[in-house]
Design a protein that fits this description.
Layout (H helix, E strand, L loop, with lengths): L1 H22 L7 H4 L15 E7 L3 H4 L4 H12 L12 E2 L5 E4 L3 E4 L5 H12 L7 E6 L3 E6 L5 E4 L5 E2 H7 L7 E12 L2 E7 L13 E2 L4 E6 L1 H9 L1 H20 L2
Parallel strand pairs: 6-12
Antiparallel strand pairs: 1-2, 1-5, 3-4, 6-7, 8-11, 9-10, 9-12
Length: about 260
């Protein structure tokens, strides 16, 4: 009986070691040699993005006509509709052609450009009309979605210009123990074309993957593992009952040896 228990304990130890490798992030591969992660990521603007754009100049009065807020405030003053306190946040929507309708400049194509490239393009256009213009551009609707086996599934807002898959999972409360860490699905749309990729976050090489940094509106889906699938079929109560029965048998075996 003692030999059987020793064999059983050894088998459980091996199983736990194997399970550990399947659960721990970045556990496979040589992390020291891959830690550099030389990917340079910059998010690009796309259709349906909402942009907050502010134009400045050495003489503020010259920049005012290029700011939508100023134009609307001026219109409100003329009609008596209210002051700045009643103003909503004014943004520019990139249309399906990749363009925005900018005051005094008309249609300007920004889709496909990074934030810095878009700012430089607007500056170049504004230099023809005002001296030493400044442009500040911010995307208001940058988010990704995390679904499946995480603690808090749903949209994840992005404050900065980029977010890694680990940061997105962290903001979703991290994965549950039932999530497949080797087959995380990332759904991405580029220029109207959707694609599906699978990433393994137990592999240290993920830091060199094009899916390490998530793009705007990416959907991350954590698939359930076999334990979760089986429990949904036979019921979680039965699973708990089997575990309790196994524990009881072990206790009886130890007490009667």
């Amino acid at each position: 009986m003692i030999k059987k228990l020793v064999v059983f304990a050894f088998a459980m130890f091996l199983f736990s070691c194997n399970s550990n490798k399947r659960i721990v992030y970045l556990s496979n591969g040589d992390t020291s040699s891959n830690a550099s992660g030389n990917i340079e990521y910059a998010s690009v603007l796309q259709s349906d993005d909402n942009l907050l754009i502010t134009v400045t100049a050495d003489e503020p009065a010259l920049a005012a006509p290029f700011n939508m807020m100023y134009l609307i405030m001026q219109s409100n003053e003329m009609t008596g509709s209210g002051g700045a306190n009643n103003m909503p946040l004014i943004s520019y929507l990139i249309d399906q052609k990749g363009e925005i309708d900018f005051p005094q400049l008309g249609k300007v194509k920004l889709a496909g450009l990074t934030r810095i490239e878009a700012e430089n393009k607007l500056k170049a256009l504004l230099k023809k009309q005002i001296q030493n213009p400044g442009v500040n551009l911010r995307v208001l609707n940058y988010k990704v979605s995390v679904l499946g086996e995480v603690m808090r599934p749903g949209p994840v807002p992005v404050v900065g210009e980029r977010i890694t898959i680990f940061e997105a999972l962290s903001q979703a409360g991290d994965m549950t123990i039932y999530g497949k860490r080797k087959e995380i699905m990332v759904i991405r749309e580029v220029a109207g074309v959707k694609s599906v990729a699978y990433v393994d976050i137990t592999d240290a090489n993920i830091i060199n993957s094009p899916y390490y940094y998530l793009s705007r509106n990416d959907v991350v889906y954590v698939k359930p593992n076999k334990t979760r699938v089986n429990s949904s079929v036979i019921g979680p109560n039965l699973t708990v009952g089997i575990s309790a029965l196994s524990l009881l048998v072990t206790i009886i075996a130890l007490s009667t040896r």
